[in-house]
Amino acid sequence: MDATAARQELLSGLREISPLALGVAVYGLAFGLLAAQAQMDGLQTGIMGALVFAGSSQIIAIERLVAGVGAGAAILAGLALNLRLLLVTASLRDELSGRPWWQVALGLHLATDENWALMHAQRAKGRQVGYWYLIGGGLGLVVVWLISTVAGASFANAVPEPRALGMDFAFTAAFIAILRSLWSGKESLPPWVTTVGIVVIATRLTPLDPTWTLILGGLSGAVVAGVLGRD
Amino acid sequence: MTDAWIVILGLAVATFAVRLSGHVLGQNLPEHGPWARGLQALPGCLILSLVTYLLLQGGPQEWTAGAVALGVAVISRNLPLTMLTGVLVIVLLRTAA
């Protein structure tokens, strides 16, 4: 791929992530508010966003820290929530193979639920998007995440509650739209039914932690697709 | 060093290690057969897992909004429109309740 095509793909990733980035901004403000409670200033909050760049695990880790469990337990809680990312980056195999190390490192660091899912959804629609689309979306998300978290930490008193704006539902709706694109007809049915069944059982009938429920649900569907499917 | 700095740096290293491990894992799986099919089905199953869990955490209001969002997604295949409809419906339902 030449430089012009790569740049165009990056720009369309950047443009098309914007509705999802709006949802991220609301969570960024909420995280900033939490960071202020942990006595973190704007600079610290910004450094954390840039270095960790995994919203839900940042929230859980700082929430634990505010709860007073200590740094080690807070890191562990954030790490557990991030185990999901193991499966996210594993499925980036084709996008990352054969690239120079810095592009691999950049792609891995910028891989989040939102831009990764959006890329897969676009591809399922038949569009030729890949690595640079993922990077474009990731860059958009980094900028929005940094601005919103730092603003939240700096102006903690003026931040509205996400639930009051219905924004807690924004990602559920976004992922439903993305699922529509990832549905590939009859062959999706057995793995998807398995996933839903496992998550319902694990959530309603077992005391399993949400992190493990999500991983178990995703993996069980993938196993069914692997065992029952045909190439 | 304060606890906040320890968490920031510790979580940064741990998170990148997870992302890198996933990459190494993906690189070492075979390119055809059951493993490849499983890996290909993984994104959809993982997102479905998340949506199922999120909806189970909610109640009738979230389920209704989810069903409307799904209807819009099936018909329009449009991400911003689905998000907008979902958020509008949930706000309306919560205000009405």
Essential attributes:
heterodimer, A: 231 residues, mainly alpha, 13 helices, B: 97 residues, 4 helices, flat
Describe the protein in words:
- The complex is a heterodimer of chains A (231) and B (97).
- With 231 residues, chain A is mainly α.
- Chain A is built from 13 helices and no strands.
- In chain A, helix 9 runs antiparallel to helix 10.
- Chain B has 97 residues and is mainly alpha-helical.
- Chain B is 87% helix and 0% strand.
- Chain B is flat and about 50 Å long.
- Chain B starts with a helix and ends with a helix.
- Chains A and B meet through helix 2, helix 3, helix 4, helix 5 and helix 6 of A and helix 1, helix 2, helix 3 and helix 4 of B.
Helix and strand layout, with pairings?
The complex is a heterodimer of chains A (231) and B (97).
Chain A: H1 3-16, H2 18-37, H3 42-52, H4 55-67, H5 71-82, H6 84-90, H7 93-96, H8 101-110, H9 113-124, H10 131-154, H11 170-182, H12 189-205, H13 210-228
Chain B: H1 3-27, H2 34-57, H3 60-76, H4 79-96
Helix count of chain B?
A: 4
Helix proportion range of chain A: over 70%
Q: What is the strand tally of chain A?
A: 0
Largest interface: A-B, 99 and 70 residues
As a percent range, the share of strand residues of chain A is: under 5%
Distance N terminus to C terminus of chain B? Answer: 49 Å
Largest beta-sheet details of chain A: none
Main structural class of chain A = mainly alpha
What does this entry show, briefly?
The complex is a heterodimer of chains A (231) and B (97). Chain A has 231 residues and is mainly alpha-helical. Chain A has 13 helices and no strands.
